[in-house]
Amino acid sequence: MKKIFMQEWMGTRPYRTADAADTYYVGIANKVADILKSDISDHLVSDHHRRYIGIFISNWFEDIISGTGVWKAFNQECLHRYGCRVPLFDEGEAYYEGEVNDSDVRFLVWHYLQVLCLGEKLISPVDASIMEAARKISDLLSAAYETAPENDSLREAFFGVAYGPEDFSRYMDFLRWYHFRGYMNCMNLDAFHHEMDRQVALRNGEVDEWGLQLLQHSLMTDSELFGHQDLLSLTSVEWLARIGAEHPETQAWTTVKVSPCHYFLFVKKDENYVYLQDLVTDQQDLLPVRRESFDQQMLQRCIEQEFIFMTTLMQYMGEWYQQGLLYAKEKTDHLLVAEVAKAGNAYDKSQEKADCDRFLEVSDGRPFVFFRQRQEVEEFVQQLGMDVEKWLGKDWKMNEQEGVLLTATPEEGMWLQLQMAHCLKSPLNPCYDEAAARKDALSFLVSPSVVPYSVSCAYRKAGMLEDALFNSRKGEQYGAELVQRYGAFLTDYYFQQHQE
Known about the structure:
Largest sheet: 6 strands, antiparallel
Radius of gyration: 26 Å
Helix content: 40-55%
Oligomer: single chain
Low-confidence stretches: none
Shape: globular
């Protein structure tokens, strides 16, 4: 396996000049990669990705030693959400914050392997080879803990100079590094390149240099501001707010807010600000946006009160900035008027909430209704006042041995569970099959293609996924208890969403 050299390591750094600490942690990265080579089979991970993981785990160790607080923020968020510092691997042993814990390393090895395989296979957190590799890596790092050097350059990049009111651009530079190069976000850069290639292919490769730059800028901005691929499905902006809250130099990070990319009426401008009216949310006050953050030529062409902007706004230390691409159209554009109305409905979920209320009314307050026959489903849909053919399709099919379930949530609206309804445990489910549930119910927690996030959460909270389990050498009961204890984490992790 090819060694990790300094040039590759420096690609993960928020500074340019390597020092003795970097040399030390490159050595750690190579030792971790060697352990992965000996213990994790090639069908799970390639040599290229072993080197990736070696670098990321060394980055984590460096964070622990240098006190930059990235992992500490993860621990605190997990404690707040799930009642433990390290999901899946918190087995009751003592946890020492700021030190090397076996549970930390087990989680990281599992997480990096799962991220690299996401969409291809489910990596079991109780896989024996993963646990053995994690044990060896933990022993390696524990032995090095007392003598490992703090990385002063890394601390300086995080906290060397306090962030002030005029440091928005500096914040954005650091955010971009954290989002695309930080060890918690190991696949964001690859995902960006993949999406860039996909978008170019959709255009049949017919994109000039200026078009490529615009596309790159748009995709990078969307990823770093709105991407939920980071651990625990928080955005990088949200993670920096949690990290920054612990240090006086980075309190400014906690003030950052991001508006969704939507529609604003261009009301007026003065020497310093452009004043926008939000047309989508319930925000009533005009938003004063720093004028220098706009494309000045475009701003010059737009007439006050006559143009609508579609863009993203960011607030930093109380000041709003325009960020990303900006599209401007005259407010009389009929298609634009329809788009604004549609965006408003999507924002407040008014249709979904109405559908949920109507469902509960027709179902006499039952949150879940099971059906065994096609005719029963169609009659219920008609009672809801919905067109059967439009909603279900002319030739919709159901397996009457497995049945279907109909439910509704304020987030999703109406949902018909056509797949695997017989795996949902309920005394009201006439098709419930325990053996099938033990085999397949885990899919409701880890497969967004099977069920929407809010519906998965509803199933779990109703106790309908009690049969879900990981296969484990310790037995089915252990695998089932693991899923029940960490079900909320699994859904957040695999669906890349979370409940506030």
